[in-house]
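Hi F.,

I've been meaning to write this up properly since the lab meeting, where we talked about keeping a consistent format for the predictions we share between groups. The idea is simple: the sequence comes first, exactly as it goes in, then the structure tokens exactly as they come out, then a line or two of notes. No screenshots and no reformatting. I'm using this chain as the first example so we have something concrete to point to.
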Amino acid sequence: DRFTMAKFILTNSRLTNGPQVRKFEEQWSNWLGVKHSVFVSSGSTANSLLVSSWKELNQVPDGAKVIVPACTWVTNISPIIQNNLTPVFCDINLDDYSFSLNGLSAIAEEHSDIRAIFVTHLLGFPAQIPSFEKIFPYVDILEDVCESHGAVVEPDTMAGTYGVGGTFSFYFGHHMTTVEGGMVSTNNTDLYDLMRVKRSHGMA
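Output, unedited:
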């Protein structure tokens, strides 16, 4: 509550990344069932960090194509453009507001060089990633779960744990809040290490 937060602010000399953040990262990883989580300043930052680190780690060339939904938040698209990647927009369906399978199939016929799909689990609805993988079995999956903490991708996989990495937001309007803040979670230790370096502006 606000009194606990006020007491914390008044009695602590450190208000940025420290022991409580480490504890939160560990607890979040345990709840989600992943090896690693990196706390950042926002869900938007989480998206940017994930895309940038995925590109660098995998030596993805400039101009590589990433499928993004036509209905999503702007910070799903801006990291693609900012990292010199090419967004390929796909229409959504009206059941869970994720990708239209017909739209993905049409993209598969037109583009043979897709490198990743940036999935948004929108408004609490889990996107049906297994169906996407049937159309694109060899591309990387990046997941934005900023609005869907705890959603489960059928049959029993937590959203944010299916692909390369998942992002989460703790903005005050979402499921839980740190007022501001976000998280990137992954099972890839090399990706985790790179994201930690990037979060700290290259400092060891």
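Notes:
Strands lie at 36-40, 65-69, 86-90, 114-120, 140-144, 152-153, 157-158, 165-169, 182-186.
The radius of gyration is 17 Å.

If this format works for you, I'll send the rest the same way.

G.
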